[in-house]
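re: the backbone from monday

yeah here it is again, tokenized this time
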């Protein structure tokens, strides 16, 4: 078996999700750096790996894949220990539901409309769009409370063990909390605060830290 290759960047939320899953499984892997925001675009040929020109893309033993949830599921099934999906059909559906909420509603709101707008935009010498942030905060709250309503009151979203849903959320929260508004909103949600404290103790989280986290 060859080492899996992750095509992506260390600043990327979705690349980090795949790296977290590989780290949790103790699978050696290689990162091939793709800067998707490079002025001239990604390298020639990258569209063959990812027709929508996003990161990450993935390859293992000649098997190419894109879309992070699919990549994470493939890694979980190919490298079985430790399993990162619950056993019961109900909990597996909950994990998929949380991943769906994160992809479809939370990522854009937490990361782009709040973190990027509050932190990255001023770093570029531009003014944050305050109306955009204010409007996003309502959605951000809905994202937090909808997932909170699915949490079972244990250490991780779905029980005493972390699942793919926890690793999908962690990189998004890692950036969201860097914006003061995100940090404030999280501190109003005790279950999220204790979840993040637990998650941030995991070596995989430390090993994949964003530069932005200092
Ligand atoms: N649906 C994709 C989303 C991946 C994604 O949006 N990645 C971001 C970086 S974290 C990206 O490539 N952004 C480039 C862009 O929006 O043009 C997945 O699940 O992998």
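seq for it, each position gets an aa:
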């Amino acid at each position: 078996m060859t080492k899996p290759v992750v095509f992506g960047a260390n600043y990327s939320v979705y690349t980090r999700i795949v790296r977290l899953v590989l780290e949790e499984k103790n699978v050696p892997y290689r990162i091939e750096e793709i800067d998707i925001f490079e002025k001239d675009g990604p390298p020639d040929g990258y569209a063959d790996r990812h027709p929508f020109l996003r990161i990450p893309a993935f390859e293992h033993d000649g098997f190419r894949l894109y879309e992070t949830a699919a990549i994470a599921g493939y890694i979980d099934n190919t490298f079985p220990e430790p399993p990162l999906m619950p056993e019961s059909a109900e909990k597996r559906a909950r994990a998929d539901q949380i991943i769906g909420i994160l992809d479809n509603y939370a990522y854009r709101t937490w990361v782009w409309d709040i973190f990027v707008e509050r932190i990255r935009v001023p770093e570029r010498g531009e003014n944050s769009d305050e109306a955009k942030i204010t409007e996003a905060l309502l959605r951000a709250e809905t994202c937090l409370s909808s997932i909170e309503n699915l949490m079972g009151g244990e250490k991780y979203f779905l029980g005493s063990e972390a699942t793919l849903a926890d690793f999908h959320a962690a990189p998004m929260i890692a950036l969201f909390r860097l914006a003061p508004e995100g940090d404030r909103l999280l501190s109003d949600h005790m279950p999220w605060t204790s979840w993040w404290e637990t998650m941030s103790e995991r070596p995989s989280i430390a090993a994949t830290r964003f530069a932005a986290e200092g």
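The longest helix spans residues 89-123. The chain has two domains: 5-78, 89-208.
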